[in-house]
Design brief:
Elements: E1 4-7, H1 13-24, H2 27-32, H3 41-47, H4 56-59, H5 63-76, E2 81-85, H6 92-101, E3 106-108, H7 113-118, E4 126-131, H8 138-153, E5 162-166, H9 171-178, E6 182-185, H10 199-208, H11 212-226, H12 234-247, E7 252-257, H13 263-275, E8 283-286, E9 298-303, E10 314-318, H14 321-339, H15 349-361, E11 376-379, H16 386-394, E12 402-407, H17 420-428, E13 432-436, H18 445-450, E14 455-462, H19 477-494, E15 499-504, H20 507-518
Parallel strand pairs: 2-3, 2-4, 4-5, 5-6, 7-8, 7-9, 9-10, 12-13, 12-14, 14-15
Antiparallel strand pairs: 1-10, 11-15
Length: 519
């Protein structure tokens, strides 16, 4: 088969016992038969409408000719630049697919005004894919409105430059159809983080030039192994490793992506949002290099190589991209079973959205800073300098905690800041994650609030160089992203998590101060 999984098991009899139990209850074949009872009665209603991902290698094939035909039509009109407006499950898989294929795709998964503004160029040659299951995702709706206005101002028909991916019958489906946009409808019985092989993954990737038919073939090639009720089933073995390790206190997984295609970011969302609830779960830590530090409560997984790590809890997962999508989805479903949680809901994601809406709508007031400074305002600390505030926060990272760096900044312009995480992890001898905001709210955000309650959080926001109004709305992107950060911080604090927010007025000087304090 095209995927090969190796797990270090001699000292983990508990993993073997878990695999034997999964085989005995026919978990694999029942999963591929879409049995919603596998995760218990409380999860059954959600699972009943979330399992169609196991057949996407077949059911999504009907999309391929229409996507290829549209790509050819667009290129015939000189439209070759593809911008994807989407968040979380709507954006992470296409980003990985296109990176693996070496084709260009601008993934606009942010409400940061400078980043959104920098995407508005070469409009005659641009097609914008607006991806949202309902259309209610405020980031994506705002991006759509801004691009519609930009196309109109440039004398271009938005319906000739905007393609919509959504669930059938959604408000966005009805709105886009009425506006004359090309609409692709995804399988409504697939959740966002399992949607890599639905229209959400295939449409932007196919329009950008990726071979999406081959991707489906790759997934199809591993199905026979993954639905087999056998102890050699790679999906069962990987899922058992993740679930049993987490149950025994090794509840973080370090992902080393040897292919360099960003698959770790996709796995991060899948695992964190699926398992991080009921004060349990598995926290993914996306590593930058095999030399990044590892702690005793971390599983180490090498992605894209057969070289097995030397750590006690470890695995190597190697194979085609389509196969990797499916094996990780199966493994996540297995881990959910072992941890006795529902791997298909995300109960704590909505809490941050609701808090942001209250702040944005004026139903609640934005918090006042604890200290106002020329370089940065400080929220959540009595300290009066960036260095002292960060030092105070780091003292709260103990032997069980992890630190989450959350930067609500322009990730296109500030690439490289991710290296702060491994350097700080080496200093603290604790796991450190890195997330661009608000992107991470749709991935690790669920784990931060619903998972093991040992997170410590550093948020960084900034004044935009140029704010952007949202057509038809009474707020700007700058106001929206500040509400998102403040809302998420409020929910985290309500759950007893330590949160420090630094709002930078001078981006260059502020980042320099933060780097110095974290060094």
């Amino acid at each position: 088969m095209t995927n090969r999984l190796r797990i270090q098991t001699p000292q983990h009899e508990s993993v073997e016992s878990a695999v034997e139990a999964l085989v005995a209850e026919r978990f694999a074949s029942r999963l591929f038969a879409e049995d919603p009872t596998l995760w218990g009665p409380e999860a059954e209603s959600e699972a009943a409408i979330r399992l169609s991902w196991v057949t996407l290698h077949e059911s999504s094939r009907a999309l391929v000719p229409d996507i290829v035909a549209l790509r050819d039509e667009l290129r015939g009109r000189g439209v070759s630049r593809v911008v994807l407006c989407g968040m979380g499950g709507s954006s992470l898989a296409p980003e990985v697919i296109c990176a693996a294929e070496g084709v260009e795709l601008d993934v606009l998964d942010s409400s940061q005004p400078d980043m959104v503004g920098s995407a508005i160029h070469d409009l005659e040659a641009t097609v914008v894919v607006v991806s949202s299951k309902s259309g209610g995702t405020v980031e994506t709706d705002s991006q759509r409105r801004i691009f519609e206005q930009a196309f109109t101002d440039a004398g271009l028909d938005p319906s000739a430059h905007i393609v919509v991916v959504t669930d059938p019958g959604s408000p966005l489906d009805e709105q886009a159809t009425a506006a004359g946009y090309r609409v692709f409808r995804a399988d409504p019985h697939v959740g966002g983080r399992y949607s890599a092989l639905t229209a959400f993954g295939l449409v932007p990737s196919g329009l950008a030039g990726a071979d999406i038919a081959a991707l489906l073939d790759q997934a199809g090639q591993v199905v026979a192994d993954l639905e087999d009720d056998a102890a050699s089933n790679d999906g069962l073995r990987l899922g058992a490793l993740l679930g049993v390790a987490a149950r025994e206190g090794v509840d973080k997984v370090v992902l080393f992506d040897h292919d360099g295609r960003g698959l770790g970011d996709w796995i991060e969302q899948l695992v964190a949002e699926s398992t991080g609830k009921d004060e349990t779960g598995i926290l993914p830590v996306v590593a930058l290099s095999p030399g990044d530090p590892v702690t005793s409560d971390e599983i180490v997984v090498h992605v894209g190589t057969e070289d097995l790590p030397s750590q006690p809890w470890s695995a190597a997962v190697h194979g085609s991209l389509g196969g990797q999508f499916l094996i990780w989805e199966v493994a996540t479903a297995v881990a959910g079973r072992i941890l006795s949680i529902d791997p298909f809901d995300q109960p704590d994601v909505e809490s941050a959205k609701a808090a942001a809406r209250e702040l944005l709508g004026g139903d609640a007031s934005l918090p006042e800073p604890d200290h106002r400074g020329d370089v940065a305002d400080v929220y959540g600390s009595s300290a009066t300098s960036v260095a002292d505030a960060i030092g105070e926060l780091l003292q709260q990272v103990g032997d069980r905690e992890y630190l989450a760096l959350q930067l609500y900044l322009d990730r296109w312009a500030l690439q490289g800041l991710e290296s702060l995480a491994p350097r700080l992890a080496a200093r603290l001898s604790r796991p450190v994650t890195f997330g661009w905001g608000p992107r991470f709210l749709h991935s690790t955000g669920q784990y931060h609030k619903g998972g093991t309650p040992v997170g410590v959080f550093l948020q960084v926001t900034c004044d935009p160089a140029e704010d952007l109004p949202v057509p038809g709305r009474d707020f700007t992107l700058g106001q929206f992203i500040e509400s998102q950060a403040a809302g998420d911080a409020q929910v985290l604090r309500d759950k007893g998590r330590p949160v420090l927010r630094l709002h930078l007025h001078d981006l260059e000087a502020g980042l320099a101060a933060i780097k110095d304090a974290l060094a």
